[in-house]
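Reminder to self: tokens first, then the designed residues, so the page reads top to bottom the way the pipeline ran.
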């Protein structure tokens, strides 16, 4: 049809690469980790660079982090925090990342922040003395995070803290970043992720705060007048 000339399709560019030889593919041999030749954590991680699987992945993570921190333009470093890191005993690691400004922004699940809040109020997560069924734990009022235990009573106390804290705030809308900063300022625990972030001016974002103990406490506060 006149005035509607179809455009010629662009031909894909075909790159020609020579096939590598077996010698080129098998160029770098694995170096077996030798504990007698390492004297620090840094030595261990350097040695991991020439191993395989997760040890090499860990070494690569460190190298990427160091490259970010050495970059003259100093890019903004976001850290995504998922998994039960606080019950796993990694709370102070995250706190140190914030306090030393190794990271600039933390994006976390609500669960990790709820567990941090619980410990900020003086409670703990516990190692199991023996394996117990979920039915046994339920009767004792104990929650299980994989192989770690925590008291449901302690969680309820943390929920009450959140409800009382939120009720005292000016009644308006808050972003998760703003709410978590204010919550962090209300905590005195120096090892708290929330408190350290508030103190150091490192923003915490939690896209699904409602999917956590903190979120359920806020929902309970919102619905309490209707229930009465």
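Designed residues (228 positions):
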């Amino acid at each position: 049809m006149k005035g509607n000339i179809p455009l010629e399709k662009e031909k894909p560019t075909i790159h020609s690469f020579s096939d590598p030889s077996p010698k080129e593919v098998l160029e770098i041999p694995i170096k077996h980790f030798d504990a007698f030749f390492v004297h620090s954590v840094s030595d261990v991680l350097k040695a991991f660079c020439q191993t395989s699987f997760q040890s090499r992945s860990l070494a690569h993570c460190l190298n990427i982090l160091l490259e970010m921190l050495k970059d003259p333009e100093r890019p903004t470093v976001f850290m995504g925090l998922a998994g039960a890191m606080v019950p796993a005993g990694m709370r102070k690691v995250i706190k140190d990342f914030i306090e030393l400004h190794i990271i600039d922004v933390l994006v976390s699940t609500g669960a990790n922040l709820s567990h941090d809040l619980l410990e900020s109020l003086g409670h703990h997560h516990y190692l199991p003395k023996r394996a117990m069924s979920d039915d046994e734990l339920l009767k004792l009022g104990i929650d299980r995070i994989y192989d770690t235990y925590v008291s449901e009573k302690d969680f309820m106390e943390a929920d009450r803290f959140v409800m009382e804290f939120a009720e005292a705030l000016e009644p308006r809308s808050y972003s998760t970043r703003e709410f978590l900063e204010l919550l962090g300022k209300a905590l005195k625990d120096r090892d708290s992720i929330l408190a350290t972030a508030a103190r150091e001016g490192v923003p915490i974002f939690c896209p699904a705060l409602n999917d956590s103990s903190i979120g359920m406490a806020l929902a309970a506060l919102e619905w309490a007048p209707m229930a009465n």
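DSSP finds ten helices and five strands in the chain.
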